[in-house]
Amino acid sequence: MVFRKVYTVWRRFSTHRKSICWMLFWLLVAGSILWQVTELPELGRKLSVRSKMEKECSAQEVKALLGEIKCFPVREDRKEKETVSFDNGYGAARTYGGDRSHEGIDIMSSIDKPGYFQVQSVSDGVVEQMGWLPLGGYRIGIRSKSGFYYYYAHLDSYAETMKPGKQVSPGEVLGLMGNTGYGKEGTKGKFAVHLHFGIYRQVKGKEKSLNPYYLLEYVKP
């Protein structure tokens, strides 16, 4: 009796096995297409960032950066639809405080209104520095687990929970975008509202900046 049931099932499978094989084939094709549509562009973007960043960082450092940067440093405006923009101004000449080069990327606001956009942490880390700098205005510096130092400058104000030593997560609000700096504490309005975003790494015991432009391109909304 058992043998007969097994035989019957096998006969039914044999009758439909061609259809089943074709169904499995098309499922594999559909899965491959879905992977190419969703994952392949992401892989291509990562490889592009890697090739550009490895001109100034080691492959291990680039891997760490891509692994820990989870979001763009400015939250999207979902109500009024104001926007932010940035270009590759890293290394451009600066003169305030003496001749120097720009050690980050300026993320500009479409509305010149301090306190409008929220600034958020791009990674996990610990708040290492807060307070006023003549160049950076109200700034906050976060040290990630891998040792990179993320620098957010010209803030209008800080989130109430921010303090040195605080653990932060990707997407956690650090403060509000502003136009502070280029003078004594409290100076505002010397330039348009924007966020100066920088990344530093340890090189022979010293902090050295790297160009975050391609990483911002990778995580921008």
Q: How do the helices and strands line up, and which of them pair or pack?
A:
Elements lengths: L1 H37 L1 H14 L5 H10 L15 E2 L7 E2 L5 E2 L3 E5 L8 E3 L4 E9 L3 E7 L5 E10 L8 E2 L4 E5 L16 E10 L2 E5 L2 H7 L2
Antiparallel strand pairs: 1-4, 2-3, 4-11, 5-10, 6-7, 6-9, 7-8, 8-10, 8-11, 11-12
Helix pairs in contact: 2-3
Task: Please describe the structure with a list of short key phrases separated by commas or semicolons.
single chain; 221 residues; alpha+beta; Glucose Permease (Domain IIA); 2 domains; ten-stranded antiparallel sheet; two-stranded antiparallel sheet; 12 strands
Task: Report the average pLDDT across residues.
Answer: 87
Provide the structure class.
alpha+beta
Largest sheet: 10 strands, antiparallel
CATH superfamily of the largest domain: Glucose Permease (Domain IIA)
Number of domains: 2
Low-confidence parts lasting 5 or more residues at pLDDT below 50? none
CATH arch. level architecture of the largest domain? Distorted Sandwich
What's the gist of this structure?
The protein contains four helices and twelve strands. By secondary structure, it is of the alpha+beta class. Strand 6 (125-133) and strand 7 form a beta hairpin.
Report on this model:
It is elongated, with a radius of gyration of 25 Å. It folds into 2 domains: 2-38; 59-219, Glucose Permease (Domain IIA) (Distorted Sandwich), CATH 2.70.70.10. It is of the alpha+beta class and 221 residues long. The mean pLDDT is 87. α2 (40-53) crosses α3. It is built from 4 helices and 12 strands, in the order αααββββββββββββα.
